[in-house]
Each structure stands twice: as C-alpha cells, then as structure tokens.
Amino acid sequence: MSHKQRSLFLTLAHRVGSLKNSLDVLSKHKVNLTKIESKPARHSNKVFNFIVDVDEDVSSEQIERALSELKRTDSVQEVQLLGGKSIPWFPRKLSDIDYFSSQTLEAGAELQSDHPGFTDHEYRGRRTLIAEIAKSYKIGEPIPKVKYTEKEIGTWSVIYKELTKLYPTYACEQYNYIFPLLVQNCGYSENNIPQLEDVSKFLQDVTGFRLRPVSGLLSARDFLNGLAFRVFHSTQYIRHHSVPFYTPEPDVVHELLGHAPLFADSDFADFSQQIGLASLGASEEDIEKLVRLYWYTVEFGVCVQNDKEGIPRTKAYGAGLLSSFGELKYSIDGIDEKTGQKPEYRQFDPEIACKYSYPITTYQPIYYVATSFDNMKEQMRKFASTKLDRPFALRYNPYTLSVDVLDSEDKLLTLTGTIQSNIDTLKFALEKIRQNKGLSFEYTSNNNKNEFESQ
Questions:
Q1: Which EC number(s) does the record attach to this protein (predicted)?
Q2: 254 annotated active-site
C-alpha cells in the first residue's frame, strides 16, 4: 500500500555515533530511507540536523514506533515528522534569537544614495556607532544606552511635539491610556529620547514583551519569529534632521512612539505574538500572508471605538500611523488635504486581507478596521490554525521562554495537565468570588508584606 512521502527532521548531539544510533533505531523498525541530508545547526555548534526521507511504502505504524524510540534515545535532542515537507529552521528558545538578530538586510550604518543622510558624514558616523551596540548585544543583557546629541534630540522634539498634539483625537483609547505611563516611567518627553532598556523593562513588567536592539532591517521571517517570543527588534538610531517628518526605514521615533506603547496592552501583545508563532517553520507563501496581515494591523491598523458620547469613531493603532504626522490625520479624517485622495475602509478579515499587496512609499489606499484587539486576536488564532500549511502544532511555554513542538502523545498529555490545572484555578477563584460576594478587599502594605483587609 502506498503512502504519502514523509521526512524526519532529526536534531542530534554533535558526537561520534549519534547518527549511527538513530539509523539503527530506524532499521530496527524497518523504516527504509530514500535520502539523508545533513544540515549544520544554525543556532549551535553542539548539535547537528539531519533530514531523512522515508520510503513511501513504510506504514504510519512503523514510523510511530520508530519515533517513540528515537525520542527516548540520549543522542536525539529532537525529532519531527514532517509529512514529506522540509521546513525552515526556526528558533526554539529565546536565546536562539541572537543568531539572526545581527543578520540585517540593509540600513543600519549602510545607506542608499537617495537617503537624506547619505552625504552627511557626521550622521553616518553616528549610525555606525549606534549600530555596533546592536551587533554585540545578547538577549537578556541590559541594553546599552545611547547618549544622543543635541541635534538628534532636536529632531525627536520636533516630531514629538507635533504627534502628541494629535494623539488625544486620533489614537485609540489603549494608546492614550498607556502613553502617560511611558512619560512617567520611561522618560518620554519632547526633550529626551527614551532609552530602549527603560522601555523594555517597563513592557516586561506589564505584558512580558521586550525590546531588542537591531542594527537595521531583518528579513520578514526573522522579524516575525522574534515576535513569537515576545521580542520586538528595535532600532536605536534616529532619522536625518533635514527631514524630521520622513524616514525611508524604521528609526527610534517609529519604534518608541509607534510600536512600543501598545505592547503594554495585553490583547495587542497577544495578537502580535500570535502572528509570530504562526511564522515559526512557515512556508515562504505563508510568511508572505503573515507579512501582509502584520502590515494591515500592527503597522497600519485602525479600529472603531465609541467616543464619550457613545458615537463610534475610527481610531488609529498602527505604528506607521502613530509615528507619521501626515498619514495619521489622513487615515482618520479620511482625506488627504493636499491631493484630495480618500482611503477605502474594509472590515478586518485575515483570510481576505492576506491576499492583498500594499504600497510602501505612499499613503495606504486601504485600511482594515478592527472591532477590538480581543476579537482581532481570536481571528488571528483561528486563521493560523486553519488556513496556514504547517505540518505541526506549536505551544509557547512562558516559563522556559521556549516553544514546544506538539508532536507526541507525552507532550499532549503534559499540555492537557496544564489546561486542567488552569481550569481548577479558575473554578477555585470563581468559588471564592461567590463566597465573598458583597465584600470588598484592598491591599495594604506593612513592612513589605501584602495583607487583605475586609471592608
């Protein structure tokens, strides 16, 4: 009986006999192979990866028995059944991100000839100096602080003053709630460029998201992979002072005024991580879909929220809007004052939005409107689980800051136990709420101890 071609992805300890031991297990269970391909592990020199194609006549039962034994073999660190599809490498734990964070495509210290700062040697020198911080950084370390020049702070100040005038009217309510907290805790002001370290620590305390410095643009896959671990790659350099309201690439203004605030909102943080998790091991076709969804939401998303009178209003939450004076007004007012151009507004549906390309040098002709971050998060979760072609399921482990590939019964049983524990906690909390109905409690601090006081 013929079966669909399948492959095994093996991660083996880099020592003598590891491959032979694995092949012996496959031979024992009569799993015939048609091809063996070795791949050096991108994230470590202590392991080696192999992709082995299985003969189409080998039964699923034979493969399952072999997999079960391989997972108990000391030299086998991980094994996946790929269903005949070769999947791209992807990070399994937080520290793996360091591997690709220095592999930028462009920008950083290198500038194109049409860049506003191309002929400014002083500016280019600053870009080179700041880019070196990102190149030597390792995840988990304190992010080195940049001593910004008066000229750089002046550029920030011009943008900051103009944008903060618009936020109360044009930005979503979550942004307007969080922004004063960044002023209070992270040094946001017109005369100070916040440091990534201060903002990152604040975000970690609130939602577990963190910032990681990067010297330039990453590939789409690498950038999205970082989001899976609640890591946002952020530049530290600032745009050229000659055109403060324009930048051809992301800079610290875009990162800290556009992106960072909403990573402090739990629903938005969850949504961003959902896109990241969907990108792990995804095909190039699916990465393109996810990039479009990221663009139409995290970068240029708008939503509908009621104003104080209960009237629905369109508000901006996308970083590309919140860091752009002109497009922020255009996206919400619905017209370009200079050209008369009007955008189209469509209800956000990931299955539809992922099919449409977008311009990167002009205002967006289409904005996708979300009803809420929570609903958007659920839409993304459903889309990732039903519309993407990935032959395995993943689970993020917040305790180890790693992802688990759910490819065995043991892992599913462990997950079931975790879910049951959470359900038990939920039931217990609900019982306590019912028992204490009519009572209110507040925390008081006494000698660094938290105590309940019944009111």
A1: 1.14.16.1
A2: yes
